[in-house]
Amino acid sequence: QVQLVESGGGLVQPGGSLRLSCAASGIRFSVYTMGWYRQAPGKQRELVAQVTRGGTTNYADSVKGRFAISRDNAKNTVYLQMNSLKPEDTAVYYCNAVAINTYWGQGTQVTVSS
Q1: What angle do CA 17, 19, 25 make, to 5 degrees?
Q2: How far does the chain reach from its first CA to its final CA, in angstroms?
Q3: Which of 9, 14, 72, 113 has the most beta carbons within 10 angstroms of its beta carbon?
Q4: Nearest by Cα to 87 from 52, 112, 65, 59
Q5: What angle do CA 89, 110, 4 make, to 5 degrees?
Q6: Pairing mode, if any, of strands 10-12 and 108-112?
Q7: Which has the closest alpha carbon to 96: 75, 71, 74?
Q8: What are phi and psi of 83, to 5 degrees?
Q9: Where does residue 13 rank: exposed (0-12), middle (13-18), buried (19+ CB within 10 A)?
């Protein structure tokens, strides 16, 4: 059974930081491209960041220079370090794993508000 379990979301003030984690089980983690997506109310789900099996990263323009994605294949975990958070970063953040199959986590809420 495949599981992607996100954690680390919460309420943070503008300019603050959060670190999201996604622990994977039931998959051969090292061969998957891992990503973070987000969906704000009334908007489509969008890609935030991805890291390939080889370590190549890709970011949405809106988060470049503020967010950093990383993976630890020994722990089957992908991280998203989010700095200089803005109110427009408020969304549910989803972990994603892509190889032959695609899997999604259940999501974690990030709210940026004063």
Answers
A1: 170
A2: 40
A3: 9
A4: 112
A5: 115
A6: parallel
A7: 71
A8: -115, 165
A9: exposed
Q: What is the pLDDT along the chain (114 residues), one digit of tens a residue?
A: 999 999 999 999 999 999 999 999 999 999 999 999 999 999 999 999 999 999 999 999 999 999 999 999 999 999 999 999 999 999 999 999 999 999 999 999 999 999
- Hey, is 63 helix, strand or coil? helix
User: What length does the chain have?
Assistant: 114
68 with 105: CB under 8 angstroms? no
The two beta strands, 18-25 and 3-7, are antiparallel
Ranges of beta strands (E only) in 26-100 are 33-39, 46-51, 57-59, 67-72, 77-82, 91-98
